[in-house]
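Lab notes, practical 5.
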Amino acid sequence: MKILERKQIIVAFSINIYYKCPAYIFKAKVILAAWLLENAQYKLKTNSLAFSHPRSGYKLSVRAYLAGENSGRGTHLSLYITIMRGDFDSLLPWPFRQNITLTLLDQSGSRNHQTNTFTPDTNSDSFHRPTSDSNVATGFSRFISHGDLEAPRNAVYVRDDTLFIKVKVDTTGLEDL
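Output from the prediction step:
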């Protein structure tokens, strides 16, 4: 069933976390109304529960806008990472310098995953040690278009109203806590 063809007026987008070393996989249950995606003034945003990378100690969360945000509003799925204040911040090197890879997993078995990686801008406050509960989220406002999400070539990203998002933090150069 395609996302944009739904007729429900139910809006739900929850994320559950599964850890699979060295990455996190998030299961997102997706149920939404077609009018929501077509009307960009509605912000369908959700954050995952916070997770701390077991090797590095940085506390992070995933933020997703199913109806898109900024330049992707109304046309794309937007995915972001947020660095949060954590228990081990005083032991960690700042600013955060690790590459982060976000992957939308193909559920067809063909392994045609949609992947984007970013290198943190160490001048951005988003990657400095948090002074509040969380920093400004950083990521991809145009991660994947709604068209490719619903009718991808040789891939299935949404099955049984569920999509999977994988987050991998490159720990190269970090010492174990």
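Observations recorded by the TA: Confidence is low (pLDDT under 50) at residues 1-21, 31-37. The beta strands are 12-20, 23-31, 45-47, 51-52, 59-65, 76-84, 100-104, 114-118, 138-145, 162-169.
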